Amino acid sequence: MSEFASRRLFIGAAAALLAGASMLSAPQAGAEEKITLRFSTPASATDNRSKGLEAIFADGIKDFAVFEPHYNATLFKQGTELAAIQRGNLEMCITSAQELAKQIPEWSIFTAGYLLRDAEHQQKVFNSDIGAEMYKMVEDQLGVKILKVMYFGTRQLNLRTDKKIMTPEDLAGVKLRMPGTDAWQFLGKALGANPTPMAFTEVYTGLQTGAIDGQDNPLPTDKDKKFYEVTKQIVLTGHLADMNFLALRKSVWDGLTADQQKTMMDAAQAAVEEIGRNQLSEEAQLVDFFKSQGLQVYTPDVEAFRTRVQKMYLESEFSKDWPKGMVTRINAVQ
Predict the structure, then answer these.
(1) Do residues 178 and 195 lie in contact, with contact meaning Cβ atoms separated by under 8 Å?
(2) For the chain, how far is it from start to end, CA to CA, in angstroms?
């Protein structure tokens, strides 16, 4: 056999071996690669939202997607997640009305204190045509798909100071940590406090050192982040039936089949229902827990807070951006 023929035989055999190896390592015909959904949140892994999404949402979409959570703002800083989705650098996050209002002023209506009555009212509003209209704004203007709203809990005041707070006037000079957006800062002022911007991951240390006098969060968050270790009282103002929105990059949603979209929506619905149930259950039990930890827990003159907060919002620049007649429509939802 000539040297040329031998070389051709060697090359052919090598090619056959490589082809065989490639066939062994390649997925079977028809198999589809799962999409990876990186999820960024400032919440901890033990937060009710985190547990619900991992246990229910992730399991519901496992046939076609991998849910990859990143907790404690380790992937993106709090407040930057929505922009990361818009840039195409992130697939999923939990966002808020306050974050959405930074880009869509109409959304500031849902940052107003004492607008949504409770968890049930919140869910009914966003499952109505009101929610559909607001979600469409987000899709059209931001390229973000809101899957579902989740009840985050009713926000209460949590202070390291001893002074009893019965009216908004009692909060004068109190450095109340609020996230840095204009909407959050305005809510702090409306409550009567001196709002101080601070990242959520810094709040415990801020309370411990006195950099802030207090913070506002739902009771389950106060427990999860152990804020009770560095505070003395919880004032049950109930100023915001708070909500989060499970947000997905619209281009990812558009790339799913109709069946996958339905499966994802069903999984999201099941997850937020479980999260809401857990939040409400914890809220009902935590007053006694905080009292057992030595905190004073009491209800102030809520009507005084409601009157001041609603008046300030209606007289503010925020209300000028609210969709016409929306407050009446929200109040009419029963």
Answers:
(1) yes
(2) 91
Query: Which pair of tokens denotes residue 250?
Result: 């619209």
Distance between CA atoms of residues 156 and 240, nearest Å: 8
Cβ contact 106:136 at 8 Å: no
Helices (H) and strands (E) in the chain, counts: 14, 9
Hey, is 324 helix, strand or coil? coil
* Residue located via tokens 């922009």: 83
Bigger pLDDT: 105 vs 18 = 105
Q: How far apart are CA 53 and CA 273, in angstroms?
A: 11
Give residue-wise pLDDT tens across range 94-148.
999 999 999 999 999 999 999 999 999 999 999 999 999 999 999 999 999 999 9
- Which tokens hold the place of 184? 């959050």
Instruction: Return the H-helix or E-strand segment holding 5.
Output: helix 3-25
Rounded distance between C-alpha atoms, residue 31 and residue 63, angstroms: 11
**What is the C-alpha separation between 48 and 274, in angstroms, rounded?**
9
Structural contact between residues 35 and 64, judged by C-beta atoms closer than 8 angstroms: yes
H/E segment holding residue 223? helix 219-224
Give which of 260, 274, 273, 277 is closest to 145, Cα–Cα: 260
Per-residue pLDDT of 156-170, as tens digits, reads 999 999 999 999 999
Please tell me the total number of residues recorded for the chain in this structure: 334
* E strands present in the chain: 35-40, 65-70, 92-95, 144-159, 175-178, 194-197, 214-218, 233-249, 296-298
Q: Rounded CA gap, 69 and 47, in Å?
A: 12
Question: Do 284 and 222 form a contact (C-beta atoms < 8 A)?
Answer: no
**Are 154 and 220 contacting, i.e. CB atoms less than 8 angstroms apart?**
no
Report strand pairing: 175-178 vs 144-159: unpaired
* Model confidence pTM above 0.85: no
Phi/psi class of residue 9: alpha, beta or left (left: φ > 0; alpha: ψ in -120 to 50)? alpha
Cβ–Cβ under 8 Å, residues 102 and 182: yes
Q: What angle do CA 296, 155, 67 make, to 5 degrees?
A: 125
